[in-house]
Amino acid sequence: MEWAIGPLFVFFRTDKNGWPMDLEQRIATMIAPSLNAMGYDLVRVMLQGRERPVLQVMAERRDDRAMTVEDCADISRQISALLDVGDPIDSAYRLEVSSPGIDRPLTRTRDFERFAGFEAKVETAEPISERKRFRGKLLGLDGEGQVKMLVDGVEWVIPLGAVKTAKLVLTDELIAAAMRQQQQ
Predict the structure, then answer these.
(1) What is the pTM of this model?
(2) What is the Cα–Cα distance from 120 to 166, expressed in whole angstroms?
(3) What angle do CA 141, 144, 150 make, to 5 degrees?
(4) pLDDT (0 to 100) of residue 8
(5) What is the rounded distance in angstroms from the CA atom of residue 95 to the CA atom of residue 93?
(6) To pair with 41 at 20 to 30 A between CA atoms, which of 29, 35, 98, 183?
(7) Radius of gyration over alpha carbons of the chain, in Å?
């Protein structure tokens, strides 16, 4: 009788809910090509909760038109089939498909460029000059791909890799821009 060559257990990093940290990325990689083929862009995948997990999938139309309930239903049917086959989540879960909304999260580099000029909130994982929370006018990205913001009259440069969360702030200016876009 021989002993195993390596350990019979594996350690992996988990998020605050106990899910493997790369699970959301694996799911995103699994569903993004189908969404693209359907004319949508994947904005975010988030798995929350442990006892009754909810898989939140946020997508938007590539033609920049407003998402409809039918869009969400089509996406839900498509990715449900993919998730049934791929089976990345080892327990029962609820799938929620939504649009990013007006005060959307900023999750991709192009979001920081696309929404330059609007007010945003950015939180970093580690302090930058003793500060982790920034709220001000988004100025886009600099030549090195870092986020630029004007906060209380001071221009900040925040490394994109340091951004923990970012989202637009609901303002009259943002609402007016969204209404103009819907009229096009």
Answers:
(1) 0.76
(2) 7
(3) 35
(4) 42
(5) 7
(6) 183
(7) 19
Q: 102-113 pLDDT, tens per residue? A: 889 999 999 999
Q: At 158, which amino acid appears?
A: I
What structural domains does the chain harbor?
Answer: 23-98 (3.30.300.70), 109-183 (2.30.30.100)
CA dist 44 and 142 (Å) reads 24
3 state DSSP class of 85: helix
Neighbours of 21 (CB within 10 A): 10
Segment holding 147, helix H or strand E? strand 147-151
Question: CB count, 10 Å around CB of 20?
Answer: 15
d(CA 170, CA 83): 33
Q: Which amino acid is at 112?
A: F
| Residue with tokens 């994109």, as numbered in its chain | 160
pLDDT in tens, 142-177: 999 899 999 999 999 999 999 999 999 999 999 998
Give the separation between CA 112 and CA 167, rounded to whole angstroms.
10
